[in-house]
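During the second half of the funding period, the structural biology subgroup turned its attention to how the target accommodates small molecules. The most pressing case was zinc ion, which had performed well in the primary screen but for which no bound structure existed. We therefore specified the complex as follows and requested a full 3D prediction, including the ligand pose.
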Amino acid sequence: MEQKAFKMQVSLQSLPMRKCACCGEAKFIPSVNLREVSALLSPNGKPGVIFTDAGFICATCGEQADLTPQDDKSVGIVSEERDGNI
Ligand SMILES: [Zn+2]
């Protein structure tokens, strides 16, 4: 299946920035969880540590970033209905 690029003429600078709900910081750092892998589960038969994605945390206060999309209520189209009695 060919993956077509979704081209939009939008400057990234014009997009609203999400800010930390706790302190208002606009920078986030990717974070990981480190997980123990026992020798039984390890492909090479030796215990190890792997990392799994744990989302983004605020660069200032460490609060977990909320990655749920905002409701686009402000973008809703307001249609002006006209009644036919002219
Ligand atoms: Zn913060």
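Two results from this model are relevant to the next phase. Strands lie at 28-37, 48-58. The chain has no helices and two strands.
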